[in-house]
């Protein structure tokens, strides 16, 4: 199994704003005072377009889908939470915590990929769990080490343990389960998505071990990464707050590897961390300040990787 892909799907926003339904447990979101919603959306579109240009310039195959105004989907820019695409032709659809995020799931996006020659064999639909108030938000909640057959999940209101285990059984992954915390107003609160504090590359892992308060769990997670011969690059909670955990390794022209992150994530890294990452791949960063502030997500959340076979 490949860990990285050249093909990604990205959704261009039309009504991006801070989603009041996700802010209840995404403590990274902020209200940008004094900015009209149209201004916020225009800034997000500008950041999005520049980011796509940078990815395409190095040969990443980006399928851009325009969001629709018909649905009130302020977070549509983060498609990796509702869908994942797998090498055997499976597509997984995930149950979403925020009701207005459930409208992001669009069949026409799958049709577009099929029109491009990607083959979809089977759809694994977990969305009925929403009726029971059970959620698992795609590759935000679960980090797939596709090559080593492991899936990492920090449990939270958006990542249910039983459903995660069911996913692992369906897709043949060994589950690695833990809890990750951040400090909010002096209190330790669960981090809403695993991919905020951790990134899995082919030969490296970026992780904020300090977020895993339970020492046994922390040791277990780090031992799993080291057992798979990944160089573990530790980041701090302050760096997590700058979205340094929210990176993704992708492939460009001639299969060249890139580690994609936001400008704020890049700027938060130390020279040593940058050197460690550059041993594995070239860094590609782009300014996503508006998207990060209002959306509480960053570069990795914006990219849904496509591993489907091509005809």
UniProtKB/TrEMBL annotation:
It comes from Flavobacterium flavipigmentatum. InterPro entries: Amdntrnsf_FN0238. Pfam families: DDAH_eukar. This is Arginine deiminase-related protein.
């Amino acid at each position: 199994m490949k860990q990285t892909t050249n093909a990604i799907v990205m959704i261009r926003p039309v009504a991006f704003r801070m989603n009041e339904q996700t802010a209840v447990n995404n403590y990274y979101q902020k209200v940008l005072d004094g900015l009209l919603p149209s201004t916020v959306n225009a800034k997000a579109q500008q950041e999005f377009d520049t980011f796509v240009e940078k990815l395409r310039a190095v040969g990443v195959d980006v399928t851009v889908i325009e969001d629709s105004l018909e649905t009130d989907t302020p977070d549509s820019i983060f498609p990796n939470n509702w869908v994942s695409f797998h090498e055997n032709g499976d597509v997984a659809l995930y149950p979403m915590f925020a009701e207005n995020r459930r409208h992001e799931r669009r069949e026409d996006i799958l049709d577009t990929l099929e029109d491009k020659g990607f083959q979809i064999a089977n759809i694994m639909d977990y969305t009925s769990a929403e009726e029971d108030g059970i959620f698992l938000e795609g590759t935000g909640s679960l980090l797939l080490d596709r090559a080593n057959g492991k899936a990492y999940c920090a449990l939270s209101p958006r990542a249910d343990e039983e459903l995660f285990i069911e996913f692992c059984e369906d897709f043949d992954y060994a589950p690695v389960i833990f809890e990750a915390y951040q400090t909010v107003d002096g209190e330790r609160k669960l981090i809403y998505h695993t991919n905020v504090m951790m990134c899995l590359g082919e030969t490296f892992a970026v992780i904020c071990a300090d977020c895993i308060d339970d020492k046994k769990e922390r040791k277990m997670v780090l031992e799993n990464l080291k057992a798979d011969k990944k160089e573990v690059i530790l980041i701090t909670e302050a760096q997590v707050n700058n979205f340094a955990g929210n990176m993704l390794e992708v492939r460009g022209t001639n299969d060249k590897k890139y580690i994609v992150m936001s400008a704020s994530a890049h700027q938060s890294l130390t020279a040593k961390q940058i050197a460690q990452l550059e041993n594995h791949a070239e860094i590609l960063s782009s300014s996503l300040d508006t998207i990060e502030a209002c959306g509480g997500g960053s570069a990795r959340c914006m990219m849904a990787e496509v591993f489907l076979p091509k005809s």
